[in-house]
Design brief:
heterodimer, A: alpha/beta, five-stranded antiparallel sheet, 16% strand, B: mainly alpha, 47% helix, globular, disordered N terminus
Chain lengths: 605, 224
């Protein structure tokens, strides 16, 4: 079974999956390995990072030095094709134009979805993150605990290949022994931050976890552990693991990884799944609607073939929705029928409700100690290597901070590959009466390059009533499919947290001896907080829960209304932790897929 | 290595084509900023062409002019080359901005069909015109023919203005052109080397910072 056109689709599949990213890829992998007949529909084109990734090209080989344009909205070499915030013919709308009330929606239209375009940070949600309502009195509890998901975190980490260290920090869980790959050594600025944050503030800077192979995966042991009674799956996984190379410590993961060292769904999940013979992939298929029968069961999906513009249908025993959280919301809401006049899963009106995102801000300053550094290679695993997990949990729990959720701090680096602004922001550091040019400009660049230290914060957000999406009453996309309208408002809870983020970042920079060009935004967090959606961590909209009246899916990601519709992306998250969503999507999808396979075998679906 | 008066890299035939399209586009408002009262620079052509679309070939190597026509007139280009090498001259460690193709890049940037560069186009063309005007006023000759002292003094005046108020001309246009030149320069392999960037090479292992860096920062080596 291969990559197919609509005409080549089989009469009926066991599983029809909408979306090929983390959630869809994970379910496709597991079900295909278990022998189910699986179809993945992807709204974008096929994409092969081995052939299409210009890993080492310097910016001078790209148009406009590789800077962002409306065609390539994250930069020329970013691994995103026909993707972005604004896609011609595929609009979305916002209910409010007020400051920070607009939601920015990134759509990744290509095989592998957003896993192509990703920093690979892979942190587990902690035990507290599943019980926000119980512990903090805000947002929603998950219907599962950390312990329910922990075994699936282990499996997802072993399959993807995650580097990191077990630090024993409260609410930033360790992995089981033998799961994580060794973290890369810290860069100079990371070691310096670690030393001074500890000495002056008592804060720990520890290795981050990322989906990058710092060594080859154990292709003997892991396939047997992940697929204990399935020799074929063991063989296919072992083969795929041997095709992935170890990181060569150069080039940004956002460009995509031609050697397979960084995780993406196409390389790690869909490639071995295709070789099982049980998976078809249908690209350029924009799914419009989940079809249902009179008994209220899903029968398949209707989609538009973007190549010829015609509508087609495909049948399946189970429909898995994993189109990215808000695209999944849109599909559920647009799946209207006599039986489900408000869309699938929406009999209680909760589809689209409770969107959350990382509450994020950043701040930077100049570190004199980093001036005129002896030139050296500081690429490492390009991107984050060191971070500060949230270390004020006790104060938070005691109600002393005035907000409910933690945040992590990511140590950036100033000496990654130079871009357009790497040598142009130094005039404020001198007391000259003029901006530098000529020899002075060259001297400034040599002295100050790499001395700007940025630190980014990404924080928790509890579900609230002000952040939701719905179908816009009038606007449709180029395929005639109604689009989403977003409602967004950060609450005081997030804004107080962001003010605290700004203060903590400034204190760490100060501990490093920083010179500041401006003050942190501790008084005006609304200015500092990044626009909703702009960090591309949005989740929710089809939240899981224990009560059918108060949630859209059960703990197995099955919609309460239609049990053979599974939501396998971030839409089921009842809230955002101070961790990135992708690893939790992989683990939840694994748990849902295991349950789904059991239900299929029992004949319950 | 090229000297500062080296000819544009675009071939002559293409340049003539753009000049002829420039003549046709003089009526477009905002297309150029001539100095009407003095012998000014020949005008730039209006930007034309299209962007590279949402799914460009990322493996291909692109040069300025490959995707959309460059628009500077020969006069403007010659002046830009001179300015590039005042902003970033050659020294014993690294080449000048013009020697690594920065004038072509600036021309590509301001000739871009994308909206984000339109404001920069205005500023860069104004900077070229104002440098030319200032040279005529001070020395009675064009900027490129003026002495290096005059050229430097003109840039100094603008650079002082830029430090005083970077949001207002002439400081604003000088600063923006300087930043484009510096951005173009430090994104070349030569510029990266000069600035001290040593990455972007495949490594068999990653061992963290070298000893001399750790010593400078008073750090212990990280345990393995």
């Amino acid at each position: 079974m291969p990559v197919i056109s609509p005409a080549e689709a089989q009469a009926k599949y066991d599983i029809v999956i909408v979306g090929s990213g983390a959630g869809g890829g994970q379910v496709a992998y597991l079900l295909a390995m278990e022998g189910a007949k699986v179809l993945v529909l992807e709204a974008g084109r096929m994409f092969d990072p081995m052939r299409e990734t210009a890993m080492f090209n310097t910016p001078n080989l790209a148009p406009l030095r590789g800077e962002k344009t409306p065609d390539k909205q994250y930069g020329f070499y970013d691994s995103s094709v026909a993707s972005g915030w604004d896609i011609p013919g595929e609009p979305y709308t916002n209910a409010s134009k007020e400051e920070k009330r607009e939601f920015a929606w990134w759509r990744q239209r290509m095989l592998g979805g957003r896993t192509n375009h990703w920093g690979r940070v892979s942190l587990r949600n902690g035990p507290h993150d599943f019980k926000t309502r119980t512990r903090q009195g805000v947002g929603l509890d998950w219907p599962i605990s950390y312990d329910d998901l922990a075994p699936f975190y282990d499996k997802a980490e072993m399959l993807a290949g995650i580097f990191g260290a077990n630090e024993g920090i409260e609410n930033s869980p360790d992995s089981s022994p033998g799961v994580l790959l060794p973290p890369p050594r810290f860069r100079a600025n990371e070691l310096y931050a670690r030393k001074h944050a500890k000495a002056k503030l008592g804060l720990d800077v520890v290795p981050i976890h990322r989906a990058i192979l710092t060594q080859m995966q154990d292709a003997e042991r892991i396939p047997k552990e992940l697929h204990p009674h399935n020799p074929k799956a063991q063989k296919l996984l072992a083969e795929n693991m041997r095709m992935r190379a170890r990181c060569f410590f150069a080039t940004d993961c956002h460009r995509g990884c031609a050697i397979g060292a960084a995780f993406d769904s196409g390389t790690v999940l869909l490639r071995p799944a295709l070789k099982s013979g049980n998976l078809d992939i249908l690209p350029n298929a924009m799914v419009r609607e989940i079809t249902v029968n009179d008994a209220g069961k899903a029968t398949g999906v209707a989609f538009i073939d973007k190549v010829d513009g015609k509508e087609h249908e495909v049948k399946g025993r189970v429909v898995v929705v994993a189109a990215s959280s808000q695209e999944s919301v849109r599909l559920l809401l647009n799946s209207k029928s006599n039986r489900f006049p408000h869309g699938i899963g929406n009999s209680n009106g909760l589809v689209g409700k409770y969107i959350t995102d990382s509450a994020s801000s950043s701040f930077s300053a100049q570190i004199p100690a980093f001036e005129s550094m002896p030139p050296h290679n500081a690429d490492g695993t390009v991107g984050q290597q060191a971070y500060l997990p949230f270390q004020f949990t006790k104060e938070l729990q005691a109600g002393k901070l005035g907000f409910s959720g933690g945040y992590k701090l990511l140590i950036g680096g100033g000496d990654s590959m130079p871009g357009m602004t790497s040598a142009t922001k130094f005039d404020w550091l001198s007391d000259r009466d003029h901006v530098a040019f000529g020899t002075e400009l060259k001297e400034d660049a040599r002295r100050y390059f790499g001395s700007i230290q940025g630190i980014g914060a990404q924080g928790a957000m509890a579900a609230n009533d002000d952040c939701y999406s719905e179908i816009d009453p009038t606007v449709k996309d180029q395929w005639g499919i109604p689009v989403l309208r977003f409602h967004w408002k950060f609450s005081d809870d997030e804004l107080k947290q962001v003010a605290h983020q700004q203060e903590t970042i400034a204190s760490i920079l100060e501990a490093m001896g920083a010179r500041f060009s401006r003050a942190p935004e501790t008084k005006n967090p609304l200015k500092a907080v990044k626009e909703g959606g702009s960090v591309i961590h949005e989740v929710g909209g089809a939240v899981m829960g224990g009560d059918p009246a108060k949630s859209v899916t059960n703990e197995w990601c099955q919609t309460w209304d239609v049990p053979n519709v599974i939501v396998a992306d971030g839409a089921t998250f009842p809230g955002t932790a101070d961790k990135n969503p992708t690893l939790t999507i992989l683990a939840l999808a694994w748990r849902a897929a295991d349950h789904l396979m059991g239900e299929l075998k029992k004949g319950n679906l | 290595m090229n000297d500062s008066t080296s000819l544009p890299r675009v071939d002559r035939r293409m340049a003539l084509k753009w000049i002829s399209s420039a003549t046709a586009s003089l009526a477009i408002p905002g297309a150029s900023f001539g100095a009407a009262t003095k012998p000014g620079l020949a005008h730039a052509a209006a930007p034309s062409g299209k962007g590279y679309g949402p799914d460009p070939d990322l493996m291909k190597i692109y040069k300025p002019g490959d995707l959309w026509p460059l628009t500077l007139s020969d006069d403007q280009r010659t002046l830009l080359i001179t300015l590039c090498d005042i902003i970033l001259p050659a020294d014993d460690q690294s080449p000048s901005a013009s020697a690594v193709g920065v004038p072509d890049f600036v021309d590509e940037w301001i000739s871009s069909p994308y909206p984000a560069q339109a404001g920069d186009r205005t500023l860069v063309l104004r900077c070229l015109d104002e440098c030319e005007n200032a040279a005529q006023t001070r020395a009675g000759k064009s900027f490129v023919k003026a002495s290096s002292e005059v050229q430097f003094a003109i840039c100094s005046d603008f650079a002082i203005a830029a430090r005083k108020d970077s949001k207002k001309d002439p400081g604003r246009f000088l600063l923006r052109l300087r930043d484009l030149i510096a951005g173009g320069y430090y994104t070349t392999p030569e510029g990266m080397k000069d600035i001290g960037y040593r990455g972007n090479i495949s490594m068999a292992s990653w061992d963290g910072p070298p000893k001399e860096v750790l010593e400078k920062l008073g750090l212990e080596p990280q345990e393995a």
